[in-house]
Amino acid sequence: MPSLTDEQLHDFLSTGDLLMRLATITPEGWPAVNPLWYYYEDAAFLLGGRRQAQWVENIRQNPRVSACIDTAEAIHSRALIEGTAEIVDPAWLGDWKAWAVRYMGEERGGRYYDDTKHIPRALVRITPRKIVTWSGPGWHPRYLE
Questions:
Q1: What number of other Cβ atoms are within 10 A of residue 48's Cβ?
Q2: How far apart are the first and last CA of the chain?
Q3: What values do phi and psi take at 142, rounded to 5?
Q4: What is the CATH number of the domain that holds 50?
Q5: Domain annotation covers residue 100
Q6: pLDDT of 138 strictly over 90
């Protein structure tokens, strides 16, 4: 199961409608995982969340996060991310129409964007410190005896 090349990783993270499963830490110290839309740009991940969302509050308290982005169908590919999250703008009204279209399609995504673009979101940037990837069938050689 080889790692993705830099080009393959960029394509994997930039195209399609894969969700990020973001893990944050609750105030009680428990991991909390949320499936989220994301946008990958300049080797960082951008997320737009409802300002009252628990995962956003968790980031305010502890910026260390982990995430998984993966395919459900064979040949399986995945990226495991560790990084630092930053709330770049707590009342963001930026243009995220491309995100809505990516995840919902042109018509539904465009309508959803138009209906909700006036609602401020928290814009979050995740700067990865580590990304581990692999793709393909079979086991990684380190697991074989």
A1: 20
A2: 15
A3: -70, -15
A4: 2.30.110.10
A5: no
A6: no
* Number of residues assigned to the chain: 145
DSSP secondary structure string for all residues of 66-94: EEEEE-SSSSPEEEEEEEEEEEEEEEE--
What's the total number of domains in the chain? 1
What six digits make up the tokens of 83?
């990084």
> In 15-136, where does DSSP find H-type helix?
54-61, 97-104, 106-116
- Residues paired with residue 78 on neighbouring β-strands, in sequence order: 70, 134
Residue 22 lies in a domain: yes
Determine the structural domain holding residue 42 and report its residue range: 6-88+121-135
Bridge partners of 123, per DSSP, are 48, 89
Residue 85, pLDDT score: 98
pLDDT at 115: 98
